[in-house]
Write a structure and sequence with these properties.
mainly alpha; single chain; about 170 residues; globular; 2 strands; two-stranded antiparallel ribbon
Length: about 170
């Protein structure tokens, strides 16, 4: 997909960096719904300007489908990749330098941390959202350890199942 976006875009640097950041955020947020139909390009009526389309349909799927995995393979596998592999993806497939890919990854981590704070505030306002909000926070905390996870650890899912019965 990265090669196609790079090939058709008229602003290659902008489009490929936006694509890379979208991919990183899908992994950090645990969005198992990032399938091919959720990526696209926008173009004007004469095809003079073609760019990667803004991200859409991004949701934390593992809070609803506990064993969910990424919809698309990366490096031949469907796992929740960590920092090392996501930076490698940026370098190998998105034509981004190691330094740039690392910087963009860290920007995405900082954005997730800021969103985590916003989520905590929303959970205080909406008690009905607390259960899902807590699950989201726990899955995002896995992203902060920057390690690869085949799927959610059993201890997290078991904890969720206990709260469901209570």
């Amino acid at each position: 997909m990265a090669k196609i976006i790079y090939a058709v875009s008229t602003n290659k640097v902008y489009s490929i960096t936006q694509f890379y950041k979208t991919m990183v955020m899908n992994y950090l947020l645990k969005n198992g719904n990032a399938h091919l139909k959720n990526f696209g390009v926008l173009y004007d009526n004469v095809f003079k300007n073609i760019n990667f389309a803004p991200a859409y349909d991004i949701v934390n799927t593992v809070v609803y489908i506990y064993r969910d995995k990424p919809a698309l393979t990366m490096f031949g596998k469907k796992v929740w990749w960590g920092k090392e592999e996501l930076v490698c993806f940026g370098v190998v497939h998105c034509y981004i330098s190691q330094v740039q890919a690392t910087k963009m990854y860290e920007e995405c981590i900082e954005a997730l941390k800021a969103t985590q704070q916003e989520l905590k505030e929303e959970m205080k306002k909406d008690k009905a959202f607390q259960n899902i909000g807590l699950k989201m926070l726990e899955t995002w905390n896995l992203s902060f350890d920057e390690k690869t996870h085949k799927e959610l650890p059993l201890e997290i899912i078991r904890n969720w199942n206990k709260t469901k019965r209570a």
